[in-house]
Amino acid sequence: MHSLVVDPTEGYMYWLNKVENKIESAWMDGQFLNKNPFHDTFSNDPKVTVAALTLDPVEKQLYYLRVWQEKCEIVSCKIHHRSSCKVVATPDEASHLSVYKDKLFWSNFHGKIYFCKKDNCQKTTKVVSNLSGFERFMFLDSEVQPQRKDQNLCAFNNGGCSHFCILHPGEPFRNCVCPIGVRLLSDNATCDPSGVRRALFVAAKTTLFYISLDTREFAPKRIAFEENPAEPISIIDVDYDPLREIVYWLDSAKGEVRRSFLNGTNFEIVASKLSPSVNHIAFDWLGRNLYLLNSETGRLEIQKIEGGFYRKTIIPGGKGREKPCCIQVDPQSGFIYFGNFYGEHGRIERAWMDGSNRQVLISLPKATTITDLVVDSEGDRIYWIEGESSKIGSAKLSNGGDIKVISTDFQHFQAIAKLG
After folding, report:
1. Which Pfam families does its entry note (predicted)?
2. What is the value of pTM for the model shown?
3. Three-class secondary structure of residue 175 per DSSP
4. How confident is the model at residue 402 (pLDDT cuts 50, 70, 90)?
5. In this structure, are residues 382 and 376 in contact, taking their beta carbons and an 8 Å threshold?
C-alpha cells in the first residue's frame, strides 16, 4: 500500500499497489476491497512504477504518476468510471502531486513546483517562481474539502461510537471501529473497556510485540517501553501477569528482567545483575513470584516482585550432567515443570513450587532436544517441542503417560504456547 487518500464525502479510500502498479479501493472502514476499480494495461508490468496518488474530492478525480521507458506521465481517473484513466501530462520528472481547484501541481526532484490547468495541462504548464527546495506540499482551503451531500452521521456525538466513527457508502452509513486488537461489543458501538484481553507476546530480539487474539486483525503492536538506543538489547524470554495486566521480559544483554503495562507505562526493572546464562523466566501470578532459570548451572531462583525484590535459590543445580532448558509454572496445581538434559537423554521434570519433591515425569529417547514446553492443567496435558525432529509431543500432565506426537509439520520452531 502506498499514497493513501480518503474521500469522506462518499466514504471510500484509495491507494496505490506498487507491486501490481494499479489503484485499489475500499470502504473507509476497510470493507469491500476492490483490487481493480480501473482498467489499466500497465498492471503487473515490472518496467512500470507508480507513485504520488492524489484526489480531487470536488471533481471526483484521481491523479497519479506513472513512469515507464524513461517517460513520466500524470494519469487521471474519474472515480466510479472503470475505463476513464488517461494521460493528462508528461513532465520531464515529478515526485509529488496535488490538486487545487482547476489546477494540477507537482514538484520535481530538484525542489521546484510546476502547475497547469487540468483540462489543458500540456499547453499551460508554468513554474512557480522564487521557490526551491520543495519535496512535498499540500493546500488548505475549505473549498477543496467539501461537506457530504448526505448526512454526516459522525458529526454528532461521534456517531454514538466510543472510539472511532468511520463513514462509508452503505447502510447504516457509518461504522464504529476500535483500536487495534480491541473487540467491539455486541451493541456495535462500544469498544471493550478492558482493552486487549488475550494476546500472543513475541520477543523479537531488540523489541517486544503483542498480537491481540480478541479480533481477527492479528496485527503486531510494539510495546513502547523506555529504552536507551545507545545500549544493547537482547530480549530472549517473556511472560505475562494476567491479574495486573503487566508483561515481563528478560533482556540478556543487560542482565535484567523488566516489566510494564502493554502501553509501555509503569516501566520498571525488577531483577538486575543476572548471569548471562539466565535465559528463561516464568511468572507465578497467584503467588506473585518470578522464576529465573540458569541453563548453564541448572540453578533455579525465585524472586518476590511485590513488597521488596527478595531472591532465593530453590534448586541449586551444579550437577555437571544436567542442562535445564525451559520452565513453566502451574500455580493452580502447585507445580513447576522444566525440560532437562541428563547426559544424552532428554526428560521433563516437575517439582513443588518451592523446589522440593522433584521427580522425573517423562523420559524421552536418546538425543532428544527439548526447546520449550507448555502445560494445560485443565486438560491434564503437557506439550513440548523436540528440536532436531521438529515434533510437538504431548503426554498426560498427572502421570506422564499417554505419550503421543501431535505434529511433525513445522521446521525450526523454538517456542510453544496454548490458547483455550
Report:
1. FXa_inhibition
2. 0.77
3. strand
4. very high
5. yes
